[in-house]
Amino acid sequence: MNEQKHEERKLSWRRDDFERRLGFEGGSYTKVGALCSGLLATVFSVAFYVVLIFVPESPVKSMFTERGWTPYAVVFLGFWTFFILFIKTRKIKLQRQPLTRPILPDDPDFTLTVDTVDDVADTISKHADSPKDFLVYRRVVQTLSNLRNFGQVSDVDAIFRTQAEQDENVSQTSYALVNGFLWAIPILGFIGTVIGLSSAIGHFAGVLTATSDVAALTPALKDVTAGLSTAFETTLVALAVALTLQLFSTFVRKSEEELLDACSEFCTVNIVTKLRVRERVEPIVEGASDES
Fold first, then answer.
1. DSSP of 217-245, one letter per residue?
2. 65-81, pLDDT tens digit by residue?
């Protein structure tokens, strides 16, 4: 009984969107706002370093707390990227829900015409309180509202293809911030390594200037080699974070591409194949004579 009620529950982007449930404006469709994800990243970054305070001293703890400012930036950008992708997965899941709900009657002989458009529109309205907030319903509603202007089925198919291309472009644009962060995180690791190398070499140069005793150079050389090993740890942390997030990003991109493909298939099966468009009659111009 509970499952049946859940299936009949009206879809609502305003109610179920992840960002809106947290009190933010919320990006449309699968777009993620920078404010919500950025604040979550800030909270979790602070919490991460608070937890590290109570962790016993270890090489791993040192990699995040004793290697300058770059690990802090890597952790913050890493969390920010993660939450953008995580929120995207929730939005993709919400946009998939309309695909499981039929919008046409069970009659196999049903055809979609100008006279039956309102029936389909009413069915969609019963499924969602605001159909235009869902990708697939927006495509269908926009097309059906202009059905009287189409002369043949190929016109409708062309409209759907144009809408699909627009949605793909918007989808690619929504990853701009993720792409920037995935580029910046490894660069921060390299910057940390360069800073560590510069410090170690500068320290060694100072020892060379201060003394020429070989015996005195030995401990200084050990400090330099130790500094080199710790300098490269910043790159190690950054590359590990970037690799993990890149794999997560690939998974999310694939899921969103599958959503867009499913929307296109839904429109083809439920609209294009059921459509019967009346041919437009060209107006007769008065006074025109037939040429013989």
1. HHHHHHHHHHHHHHHHHHHHHHHHHHHHH
2. 877 788 899 999 999 99
